[in-house]
From TrEMBL:
Keywords: DNA damage, DNA repair, DNA-binding, Glycosidase, Hydrolase, Lyase, Membrane, Metal-binding, Multifunctional enzyme, Transmembrane, Transmembrane helix, Zinc, Zinc-finger
Complex and partners: Monomer.
Protein name in the entry: Formamidopyrimidine-DNA glycosylase
Pfam families associated with the record: Fapy_DNA_glyco, H2TH, zf-FPG_IleRS
Species: Heyndrickxia camelliae
Stretches assigned to the Formamidopyrimidine-DNA glycosylase catalytic domain: 2-123
EC number: 3.2.2.23, 4.2.99.18
GO terms for biological process, alphabetical: base-excision repair
Length: 269
């Protein structure tokens, strides 16, 4: 599932390619991917301009000039592609937004969605999300306060979108590795210096992932060489049985909170 870095990468690219452009056509191939009747969705989107694109947690928000917002969550298996008809991936497209002779294809939205809401309803949908880990408001003091409210495993807390928004299975493993802390440790077991290291690791891992295009398998446009670049930089996630780059131990995997969790016992304590 795309996490904060992947959605931030998409946001940056979308701002380059469709910001300020008018949606010239809309195609709905899967009604379940939207939240209103297709004719209503098309009426509210077609011939309206994209005025602003924002990311919140794992969501993208496309602001339209009529006051409506397209709220995207790709969920498991979802991705986007932008290009001309000749570049269209050979995959089933659930929703398509056209901008003249170029199109934004939403693919793999079997669990994901592209909903349209007004500003008030959008705020309600996102109201329970925790702080954005890369925002200026997410300070060490805020983090320490949040941690005091939790007494569960580190892995479980990092996955909790009400605790901290945007971090999922993959980056929770990488953050724990960067901080040299085992993901099954309880938050109430962490020493002060470990909390500081964890805070720094959250920001460092997410920023590095964004700068390297996240881990998405598919490029966003023809010739896109950035998207997916972080996959080669993963230290533990998906590397069970391989040698740790830092200490030479064997990377292990176990289920924590019903998620496959990867770590190194050699250098995480």
């Amino acid at each position: 599932m795309p996490e904060l870095p992947e959605m931030e990468n998409y946001k940056l690219l979308l701002n380059q390619y469709i910001l300020g452009k008018t949606v010239t056509d809309v195609q709905i191939n899967r009604v379940k991917s939207i939240n209103v009747p297709p004719e209503d969705f098309i009426r509210k989107v077609k011939l309206h301009k994209i005025t602003y694109i924002e990311r919140r947690a794992k969501h993208l928000l496309f602001y339209l000039d009529n006051g409506n917002i397209l709220l995207l969550h790709l969920m498991l298996g979802g991705w986007m592609y932008y290009g001309g008809a000749a570049d269209k991936p050979k995959r089933t497209v659930q929703v398509q937004l056209s901008f003249g002779d170029h199109h934004l294809y939403f693919i793999g939205l079997r669990l994901g969605y592209l909903h349209i809401h007004d500003v008030k309803r959008t705020a309600e949908v996102l109201s329970e999300l925790g702080p954005e880990p890369l925002s200026n408001e997410f300070t060490m003091e805020v983090f320490q306060t949040l941690i005091k409210m939790k007494h569960t495993k580190l892995k479980s807390v990092l996955l909790d979108q009400n605790f901290l928004s945007g971090i999922g299975n993959r980056y929770s493993d990488e953050i724990c590795y960067e901080a040299k802390i085992l993901p099954m440790r309880g938050l109430d077991q962490l020493e002060k210096d470990e909390v500081i290291m964890l805070y720094k690791s959250i920001k460092e891992v997410l920023k590095t992932a964004i700068n390297n295009g996240g881990y998405m398998e598919h490029p966003f446009f023809k010739g896109d060489t950035l998207t997916g670049g972080y996959e080669a930089l993963l230290n533990v996630h998906g590397r069970e049985g391989e040698i740790c780059k830092r200490c030479g131990s064997i990377i292990q995997m176990e289920n924590i909170s019903s998620r496959k969790t990867y770590y190194c016992k050699g250098c995480q304590i």
